[in-house]
Amino acid sequence: MCGIVGFVGKKEATPILLEGLRRLEYRGYDSAGVAVYDPERGLQVVKTKGRIQVLADQVAARGGLRGQVGLGHTRWATHGAPSDVNSHPHVSENGRIAVVHNGIIENYAEIKEFLQSTGVHFASETDTEVVAQLLEYYYHGNILDAVTKVIHRIQGAYALGIVCADCPDRLIAARKDSPLILGFGEGFHVLASDVTAVIEHTREVCYLDDGEIAELTADHCWVYDAYLRPVEKERRHVDWEISAAEKGGYEHFMLKEIMEQPKAVRDTISPRIQDGRVVLDGVELTPEYLKNLDKIYIIACGSSYHVGMAAKYTLERMLRKPVEVALASEFRYCDPIVTPHTLALVISQSGETIDTLAGLREARRLGARVLSIVNVVGSTIARESDNVLYTWAGPEIAVATTKAYSTQLAVVDLIALYCAGQMGTVSRAEYDALLAALQAIPEQLETVLERREEIQYLASIYFNHPSVFFIGRNMDYAVGLEGSLKLKEISYLHSEAYAAGELKHGTISLIEPGTLVVAVAGCGHVFEKTMSNVVEVKSRGADVLGVTVDSRREAMGRTVDHVLTVPDTETALLPSLEVVPMQLFAYYVALMHGCDIDKPRNLAKSVTVE
Ligand code: M6R
């Protein structure tokens, strides 16, 4: 979604803003812009539809933008098509106040109508422009006063960056339900949607909370609540290396991140296994609490939801407690049955997905305890959870998640083992076997990655199939969901995932000669059942690519056209290995189609609007 970067200091702002925007490109965007206060010429704005390079070229064509205070923005269109005029920054009619915004102003139409009735003319179709014009309406010499009036008038989600030409030594920021961080440096301050934009300049940051307003100059930072009462903020040090946000010789971030999975999973599990037991420090899952648990409600979106689908099988089998998996966008409006004995397990890479955050808040409101699995340290979901287990995947830049998905699975496995240990629901022998198998996963991931040329070859055979179905049962079905999403989001091929036994209840009518079916069949107890479904699609002319474990290569190979295998492991851990051929297959298919793999069309890395 939209990305914000702001700078105030004693250096030229424009290069810092453009570099920050480049680092925010991964969030997904369709246009970009900058506003810089030039002491001689006042507020200068350059904005355009298209890539950051187009913006940089336009800035250069104007001989650069001079000034030490400024804002930059990447826009992911919601209200109004991607266009030069709808790009941010938006400026009040008299050019005094420039605004960048991430989020949606839900009551913008009513405010726009009101402002138009007072004679204000709007230039764009965006919801954001009402903020710039409303600030001007309320501005009577004190920009902070105007900001407080505006935030009490607007509804919806916003992270705002503001520059006012009357106080050109400062940036103003405000936030509600959209992420915004402040960065501290020697003689400068920055603001940004996430740390990747500023990590080159500072590692000392703080996270604005909902309803807060920040005022930044080169040397000072003040944070206030929505009534301008001062707020003390805790500073945090960011450990991420800048190299983690660079491609390091790979053609795409997605491939780099796929290849990083053994390390990411190792980093996630190793510190949490001590003396043959899973240790989850700071997580309050006591035997007493677990005994009285009525349900685990998993709340997530997209791939994180698919982790939840796999988690349901593992947690129910190991804990014998009901697990419900909800799409966060549905959960928040479905009047869910949640009690103080419900554990809400919230899964999110970014920790900022607006639906997931709203689901978390709803679960808390209904009395559930919230345990979250999050990758981005200090993100809103992490901060609002009762307990958080971080995935140590490092920054994930490609829009299509890979290493975050794998580390989320690993944390689910740790939770399952930990709770089973607390509750005594699995035997010591089973616990030990699962733990040993989990510890072997990083090495087994390396084995799967070594087979990537075979996957690339199969992608070259199948990349032109216009429609792909993924089928599987049990955990294999959960993996199929993820495989299908990976393929469609980066290669734009039509693809669907089905529980293999469900196909014959309608969807099999779509199978015809030449349709590609990816059959995932690692789970031993349903292998024969899935193979029966494979025979059904084969006899209707489908081409079938099978995915199973090494020990069933031959058995599967007798029926399907090609087989990919992963090392044998415990059933509960199969998704961790099976997903990798899916990721690589999607990657190579997209590559062969010449797609923009790291920045697929229409998609954003972090979905901060509903
Ligand atoms: O940051 P989150 O895990 O909350 O994001 C959820 C989804 O938006 C995300 O998994 C999305 O589906 C990915 N693009 C899938 O690759």
Element layout with pairings:
Elements: E1 3-9, H1 13-24, E2 31-38, E3 42-49, H2 52-61, E4 69-75, E5 90-91, E6 97-105, H3 108-117, H4 129-138, H5 143-153, E7 156-164, E8 171-176, E9 181-185, E10 188-192, E11 204-207, E12 213-216, E13 221-224, E14 236-237, H6 253-259, H7 261-269, E15 273-274, E16 277-278, H8 287-291, E17 295-300, H9 302-319, E18 323-327, H10 328-331, E19 342-348, H11 354-365, E20 369-374, H12 380-384, E21 387-390, H13 403-423, H14 428-450, H15 452-462, E22 467-472, H16 475-491, E23 494-499, E24 516-520, H17 527-538, E25 543-549, H18 553-557, E26 562-566, H19 574-592
Parallel strand pairs: 17-18, 17-19, 19-20, 20-21, 22-23, 22-24, 24-25, 25-26
Antiparallel strand pairs: 1-4, 1-10, 2-3, 2-4, 5-6, 6-7, 7-8, 8-12, 9-10, 9-11, 11-14, 12-13, 15-16
The structure holds 5-amino-5-deoxy-1-O-phosphono-D-mannitol.
Keywords: Aminotransferase, Cytoplasm, Glutamine amidotransferase, Repeat, Transferase
Function: Catalyzes the first step in hexosamine metabolism, converting fructose-6P into glucosamine-6P using glutamine as a nitrogen source.
Active site: 2, 605
Keywords for this structure?
8-stranded antiparallel β-sheet; 6-stranded antiparallel β-sheet; 26 strands; 36% helix; binds 5-amino-5-deoxy-1-O-phosphono-D-mannitol
